[in-house]
Structure formats: C-alpha cells, structure tokens
Amino acid sequence: MEPRIITDRYHVSPQISPEDAAAIKQAGYTLVIDNRPDGEVPPDFQADAMRVAMESAGLRFEVLPLTHQTMNADNIMRQGELIEGAEGKVLAYCASGTRSTVVWALGKASDLGADTVLETAARAGYNLEGLRPTLRALAER
C-alpha cells in the first residue's frame, strides 16, 4: 500500500492487495473505494475478494470502476458523495492512483478552481496538466 495524500480526508493509491486490509484500518481509513474494473486484475484482486478482506478488517468498501468511458458526470458525482459521506479518511485505488485522482479533480474543479486542483494533484505526484482545459471549463460553470 502506497497512499498519496490528496486532501486530509482523501488519499489515493496504486493497486492494493487483500493483505493490506489490516494496515489500511490501522492507518485510520474508514472507507476504501475500488476505482479499478475487475477486468484489469486477477480474481484475487477483483472487487468481491477485496470486499471480503476490507469488510473483515472493519472497513466500508465501495466499488466504482472507472475507465475513460465511465468517467462521466454521474460517476464523478458518486465518488464525491462517497467521500463526503465517509465517517473518516478515504482511500481510493486504481492501477496507479491516477484515475482516483482524476475523478476527484473533476469533482472539485468548480469548488477549488483549476489551478488549485492541479497543484494539489501535483503535490501528490500526479501531473494532470492535460486536464487543464476541462478543469477550467468546469470551474467557470
């Protein structure tokens, strides 16, 4: 597990494993969001297996698989709702953490502005400069 801090409450990570569940709980997370489609991972890392491990450790587990096709307004809003509704720190993961960062950025652009979102992502190690036009458009709404 290699969490990167986006905000105090929202962290992202590359792919985690079921064996990480205890460490995730011990690190103070209350919600784990799986942003990785099952088709990208072997059965041991698919949502059902991850759910069993995370819930057995006392964590809430939600699945919101994201691809270029599913990075839409409904899923951006759903990710935001999951984060806002969490009772503590949230860990979202995908292959590298990028999709989990992008969905956060798209959801926060109107509140924080493009520059702040891009700077926040960059501090966590994610260069989202290619999204600047989209983030600006969202911020100007």
| Biggest sheet descriptor | 5 strands, mixed
Give the radius of gyration. Answer: 14 Å
Structural class: alpha/beta
Total strand count, please? 5
* Mean pLDDT over the residues: 97
Principal-axes shape call: globular
User: If strands are numbered along the chain, what order do they take across the biggest sheet?
Assistant: 1-2-5-3-4
Give the CA-CA distance, first to last residue. Answer: 36 Å
Q: What fraction, in percent, of the residue positions are helical?
A: 40-55%
- Beta-strand content estimate: 5-15%
- The low-confidence parts are none
Helix and strand element order: EEHEHEHEHHH
- Our count of helices gives 6
Give an overview of the whole structure.
With 141 residues, the chain is of the alpha/beta class. Helices cover 44% and strands 15% of the residues. Strands 1-2-5-3-4 form a 5-stranded mixed sheet, sandwiched between helices. A hairpin with a 4-residue loop joins β1 (4-5) and β2. α5 (114-123) packs across α6 (132-139). The longest helix is centred in the last third of the chain and has 15 residues, at 98-112. It starts with a strand and ends with a helix. The mean pLDDT is 97.
